[in-house]
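Morning. Coffee machine broken again, so started the prediction first thing and wrote up yesterday's gels while waiting. Chain of 676 residues, entered below exactly as on the submission form.
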Amino acid sequence: MNNPFLQPYNTPFDAVPFDKIKLEHYKPAFEEAMKQGKADIEAIKKSKPSFTNTIEKLERAGELLSKVSSVFFNLNSSETSDEMQQLAQELSPLLTAYSSEIALDEDLFKAVKAVFKNEDRTPLNEEQIYLLDKTYKGFVRSGANLSKEDKEKLKEISTKLSKLTLTFSENVMKDSQEFELYLTDEQDLAGLPEGTKEAAKLMAKNKGKENGWLITLDYPSYIPFMKYADNRELRKQLNEAFGARGFNNNKFNNESIIAEIVSLRLAKAKLLGYKTYAEFGLEERMAETPAKVFQLWDELLEVALPKAKEEIEEIKALVSRLGNAIELEAWDFSYYAEKLKNEKFAINDELLKPYFKLENVLDGAFQAADRLYDITFHERKDIPTYHKDVVTYEVKDKDHNFVALFYADFFPREGKRSGAWMTSFRGQNKYDNKNNRPLVSIVCNFTNPTETKPSLLTFNEVTTLFHEFGHALHGMLADGHYESLSGTSVFWDFVELPSQLMENWCYEEESLNLFAKHYETGETIPMEYVQKIKDSAQFLSAYQTVRQTSLGQLDMSWHNQEEIKPISVIDFEKKAGEKTSLFPFNDKTSTSSAFSHIFAGGYAAGYYSYKWAEVLEADAFEYFREKGIFNKEVAKAFKDNVLSQGGSKHPMELYKQFRGAEPSSAALLKKSGLVK
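Came back before lunch.
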């Protein structure tokens, strides 16, 4: 077979030849990659243990497997099919078994341990020492010190978990796509902006429904309906459908999968000598222990919870003023919050969207990156992509050197999971005396263009684009030697710092002037709107803090158990959310059943990372604000000490190199308007 994975790519910048890759290429490529990876390991075991012979060669073992995996699993999220998902289910246990075999190889661990214990570290630089320590610790955390019997148990657990997390993710996507709210009476769309109605009309037409409007659970469809639709019963129907993803009485139900995942994770942690899975997970994060996470929650909730209740009361007062005798429910919150926001600040998404044409916002992100980090973006039409909507850019530095390829994939479609994320098809490294540059991608689900309008973003979508672009900068500006320590390969509670920091540029006049221009007239966003954006930035900040904290606490509740007791998902959630619940409990919906971050992504016992990183970014942006948001000196310090360094040192060391001291939660509370 002429398999594109098994020969040189022969594309500009060695970009992935998506146009040549077919489904049937993956399995033989994976098989060959695992065969080569095993041969690499055997060669390492036969060599005399040393940093070069053991640690560096292990770092590069299985390079073909990384090459194939990055394409397959990224496309399984952004451009999948039933056949691809079936193949993923088939391959996942094989890949887990392969990884377990390496992690539990006694002879390989002996070689790693010999280097760790006996290598003279004097000739090694800081990055090499960090890699050596991380490699050794990785083996220990993967069970290298276990008995033969326990190693087999761990293999079995890992294989089961790999399949279950994959199934969880597939169930959420399929259950989401099962639901459609098809409306044929225009009165049911009362309150919706014209652009939202037009998008719903186009959605219906694309699905072969000529006379009506289609609302789905994709964010660009779901969120405007919840914000603007006057029909309370339809809001309730849509809200409950969204909250029931993975929780419906059908083949996509995730309840038993959740129970099995948390049980297996606890069993894994206990095999490795930890009391809980959270204790195991946090050992390799900045927080280090569950106690420190709970301390963060306590600090935030002490201030935010009373204020969040005041914010809810303010919305209830608005409901009463409008003459609506209802008990405020979850499906009412966005609708009345939007009205209150408009009343207080005279600003809403419909007022702002004409100034946030997608192409202009993306160009704004590019201009901000240029002003901060001296990099420019140039669209390339000759780079293969995996879908017609994907746009590709060559990134260059001020000396016109190649920095990275950047892929942008912005619109929802069948076969693409919901949400937004950054990923890469190739990491950065400096192997073979060459700086091998990365292939970085951001994937989002933004409002589609319609027949009469371009894609006009809500302000939330603007901040989402800047957020993911912040992750992308972390990947693109990587400048490490070892790929496993490069770019976003950092502790989970540090990875959100560059992304959340970048969101700040969406609120600053100097930045907004670069890209917030009316899509029809070209007029720059009026300064009064900019001021309103800034004034409204703290709107419902206490509620949002409690919301994020409650999700983090739910995650910790699942993963900080020392014993798994039989309990329904809904009862578990009710108990976990007792402190932070702001609405009447609804047993028709479940957060956990679609909580892909913790049950299918890498955020198990780590969802707190978003708030942890907010503490870091609030402190970091204070520095930019003091010196100027495009100050080259501060930007260079951030690039040199954070973005380019990846995971080459402990993240707190990197942060202190940039800022000069550790951060505290005070900067976040101040930024959120929760303290003066």
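The two ends are 67 Å apart (CA to CA). Going to sketch it on the whiteboard this afternoon.
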